[in-house]
Amino acid sequence: MPSNATDASDKHAAPPLPEPLRVPVADSHTHLDMQSGTVEEGLAKAASVGVTTVVQVGCDVRGSQWAAETAARHDAVHATVALHPNEAPRIVHGDPDGWSRQGAREPGGAAALDEALAEIDRLAALPHVKGVGETGLDYFRTGPEGKEAQEASFRAHIEIAKRHGKALVIHDRDAHADVLRILKEEGAPERTVFHCYSGDAEMAQVCARAGYYMSFAGNVTFKNAQNLRDAVAVAPLELLLVETDAPFLTPAPYRGRPNAPYLIPITVRAMAAVRDIDEDALAAALGRNTAHAFGY
Ligand SMILES: [Zn+2]
Ligand SMILES: [Zn+2]
Questions:
Q1: Protein residues with C-beta less than 5 angstroms from the ion ligand 2
Q2: pTM of the predicted model, to two decimals?
Q3: Strand order in the sheet with 77-81
Q4: How many structural domains comprise the chain?
């Protein structure tokens, strides 16, 4: 059905290019390996609207290897490497319904988790790898049976990030209190980023006191996300980041359509409106903050 494939009203079509930002920013968290088109096309499209840098995030061993290789090939790409919080329990217990591209997996036990972590540790030492993550806790997709493996993996990632002096990228879904507690128990790395920040204003103040970066995704534009806008309003400017988490979380009014780094300007404008500050001033801060957070 080729005739409708590029129709603007097509619910699955890529959203149009937003008006370019005048001051360049970085997409602090994206998954280019899950988006359509080539890396070169995605980067060119993003750069055309002022998104000149992206942080490519690994979620499993293969994806982390790919992130490191892609960052080595492109100046505009920095990599982070990790086993996603939903990946660690799957390595230990197996999961026939896994969302991973590798699909079903035989249970490998604790030894398999150790082996995977050893590869993440090796990758974390590479110069193009600027962070360890996304790691953390996800109580939405992982049930009680996976909690132990998830927590062990999170603690191991914190240790790896600190030993290599890299940023830590946190995935926190329905697990705010436990994520904050474990960070405190282990001692957070100097640079810690809450990706797809999902707390409220009160938690933003806790993060601010700890010096954690808060990275906001397209869901900050969603009607039901007042808690996120409240957090954007109170977070210190120097701790704010922006991300797509593409292909997920496409900002309004394109919710449900494929997301990609070139849509960052929409989220930047939404954040600027919430804080009632100039778009250029916010973009400058976001660009600076992302470079600080990831040390590039
Ligand atoms: Zn995540
Ligand atoms: Zn992600």
A1: 245
A2: 0.94
A3: 25-30, 51-57, 77-81, 129-138, 167-173, 192-195, 213-216, 240-242
A4: 1
